[in-house]
Design goal:
It is a single chain. The chain has about 325 residues and is α/β, with parallel strands linked by helices. The protein has a single domain, classed as Alpha-Beta Barrel (TIM Barrel). It has eleven helices and ten strands. The strands form two sheets. It has an eight-stranded parallel beta barrel, surrounded by four helices. It has a two-stranded antiparallel ribbon with strand order 1-2. Helix 1 packs across helix 2. The longest helix is centred in the last third of the chain and has 18 residues. The chain is globular, with a radius of gyration of 19 Å.
Length: about 325
């Protein structure tokens, strides 16, 4: 039996979410390799059993396939879980947002989406420019109709977040954030704390790097998007490997895994939850156990020191991949 953990507020929405959120990009299969549907379903159920109550997906993950996987795995516990999904940057016109939300509601087999997020700002990935007030107008109308409970944004800079906030309440920002990718700290983190906007950190394990899952010369199956992760650049990855060697004895001293150490660091940051993906039930249970890890001030200072050896090599581009 898992003892109940204290869930955290999602902005000012009144929704409370677990410090670890299960990310479901991989459940859509596109841009991933070796994903097994049955194991993903077992993983989602294992997450609920382990005290994870929030799940993050998007319309673009397998063109709705990830959303449908989540619905099938949680139908019996819908009222106990928080559905977070996203509208992509090519659907930000008023009518497109409304239609995208209706598709996601159908995929998720639900009458409301708990957190509906703008996945990328307009013009990202060569999409058309759409005024943020138009997109926010659609989201506020959906909220007034009870079809969404809270509004969030993903991959927004501080300036873009401020602009969106001028047109309505934003309760979350979802940026890439890990020990090895800390751009949000220089940009939007302080603003989020000031305005009670929860940071939902995606790729908190740097897509498996911080779990120690890659060799000195990593190999990727065809179609695996992680090959384009900028941390694998030849001028950066050797420094990543050296930092991991410094992290291993810290994890050993605390009797936890590398992955749990990395996740514990993320959720120790103010107002931050970690969106952690997983391929299997065992990975989900390992991630969930990080919610019970308490890092002291000395631990946090040591982890900060180690991470600086990697992040000092990164430029100001906030995008994690070289797509």
């Amino acid at each position: 039996m898992v003892l109940p953990r204290e869930n955290r507020p999602l902005g000012r929405s009144g929704i409370r979410i677990s410090p670890i959120v299960m990310g479901l990009w991989q459940a859509g299969k596109e841009m991933w390799a070796g994903i097994d549907d049955a194991e993903i379903r077992r993983g989602i159920r294992a997450a609920v059993d382990a005290g994870i109550n929030a799940f993050d997906t998007a319309e673009v993950y397998g063109k709705g396939y990830s959303e449908r996987m989540l619905a099938a795995a949680t139908a019996e516990v819908r009222d106990q879980v928080v559905y977070c999904t996203k509208v992509f940057a090519n659907h930000l016109r008023y009518d497109q947002v409304i239609a995208a939300c209706e598709r996601s509601l159908k995929n998720l087999r639900t009458d409301r989406i708990d957190l509906y997020q703008i996945h990328w700002p307009s013009t990202s990935w060569s999409t058309p420019r759409v005024p943020i007030e138009e997109t926010m107008g659609a989201l506020k109308d959906l909220q007034a109709q009870g079809k969404i409970r809270a509004i969030g944004v993903s991959n927004f800079s501080r300036a873009q977040l401020e602009e969106a906030l001028a047109w309505g309440r934003i309760d979350s920002l979802q940026p890439p954030y890990s020990l090895f990718w800390r751009h949000v700290e220089r940009d939007a983190a302080a603003f989020c704390r000031e305005h009670e906007i929860t940071i939902l950190a995606y790729s908190p394990l740097a897509q498996g790097i911080l779990a120690g899952r890659f060799a000195a010369k990593p190999h990727f199956a065809p179609g695996d998007h992680r090959a384009k992760n900028r941390l694998f650049r030849p001028e950066i990855y050797p420094r990543v490997q050296r930092a991991l060697e410094e992290l291993r004895p810290i994890a050993a001293r605390l009797s936890i895994s590398l992955a749990q150490l990395a996740l514990a660091w993320v959720i120790a940051q103010p107002g931050t939850c970690a969106v952690a993906g997983a391929r299997s039930a065992s990975q989900v249970r390992e991630n969930a156990a990080a919610m019970d890890v308490r890092l002291g001030a000395a631990d946090l200072a040591e982890l900060d020191r180690v991470s600086r050896g990697v992040i000092e090599l990164l430029d100001d581009n906030p995008v994690l991949w070289d797509f």
